[in-house]
Amino acid sequence: MHVDIVVPRTQIPAKMRLLSRREEFEAKSEARTAMLDAGYPLGGESREFGTAEQWLVEVAVRMVAVAVREPTNPERALASIDDWRDCDDNQILALWSEYCDLAARLDPVGSNKLTDQELDGIIASAKKKDVDLLMAFGSRRLALFAITSASPPASSETPTS
Known about the structure:
mainly alpha, 7 helices, 54% helix, 161 residues, single chain, three-stranded antiparallel beta sheet
């Protein structure tokens, strides 16, 4: 299934599809290799400043390169990984957010629960006030976070005299 999209900050139309499990695995493997080649620590020490954000964008670039297709010929990618790497992070993360929303919408199970990893990631991003990283979670995950973590407002009853 392909859905119509427009590349953010452009008027370029495209189609978007979900990746297969194999394509997703390859994208993550390539991102890991690129991160290690660039000197980013991965694994237990990956909590260093900027590593998580860079990892997210590296994975997103590769997945976007596969997911975003030519509008008139969805069998062909719209652009190469190198072309997508020339875009700014906000464009990539906006497309990543669209991809996550598409995946959530087409999820046959339709989970209404966040994983512990998603919950921790959203909370950490909110504490950092990192809007771009929050956007990468997609509107569905953020909505699930909002409805599961919202507390009713405190009562502000004032005594009557």
